TrEMBL record:
<feature type="transmembrane region" description="Helical">
    <location>
        <begin position="68"/>
        <end position="90"/>
    </location>
</feature>
<keyword id="KW-0472">Membrane</keyword>
<dbReference type="InterPro" id="IPR006976">
    <property type="entry name" value="VanZ-like"/>
</dbReference>
<dbReference type="InterPro" id="IPR053150">
    <property type="entry name" value="Teicoplanin_resist-assoc"/>
</dbReference>
<feature type="domain" description="VanZ-like">
    <location>
        <begin position="19"/>
        <end position="142"/>
    </location>
</feature>
<feature type="transmembrane region" description="Helical">
    <location>
        <begin position="12"/>
        <end position="31"/>
    </location>
</feature>
<feature type="transmembrane region" description="Helical">
    <location>
        <begin position="125"/>
        <end position="142"/>
    </location>
</feature>
<dbReference type="Pfam" id="PF04892">
    <property type="entry name" value="VanZ"/>
</dbReference>
<protein>
    <submittedName>
        <fullName>VanZ family protein</fullName>
    </submittedName>
</protein>
<feature type="transmembrane region" description="Helical">
    <location>
        <begin position="97"/>
        <end position="119"/>
    </location>
</feature>
<keyword id="KW-1133">Transmembrane helix</keyword>
<keyword id="KW-0812">Transmembrane</keyword>
Amino acid sequence: MSINRTDVRAKKLVGLITILYLILLLYWMFIGFGRSGTQWSGYRYNLVPMRTIRLYFDHADSFTPTHWLVNIVGNVAVFVPFGLSIPYLYRIRIVRLTLLSVAVLFILELLQLLLHRGSFDIDDILLNTVGVLVGAGLYSLIRRRVS
């Protein structure tokens, strides 16, 4: 099976877009949204799965729609592109993609905690992983339709 130039160009373009998107995402996670160094003393974290998610649903009327959307929908949506691009670039299967995503997200959340650029929230890892899996599902659907 030969790889034609169009496939190689497409993969390079998707790889470049993925890297640029990763840089933007890292900016959002560590600098954007008003994050500055030491905003508080100590560490903020949630290690109980579904605690933050349940809080947003149980007290939805206490949050602005924008705050709610950014924290629930945004945490899913922002990782959908990785679920689309990583399987395309590396032909990775869903189990490996899930494990890789959880490991990378764990490291990013831990860095946010240690650098005082946010908090470590297990629910962010869950929501972000759902985003990757939604993207992978979309990729799978697209691939079936095209082939």
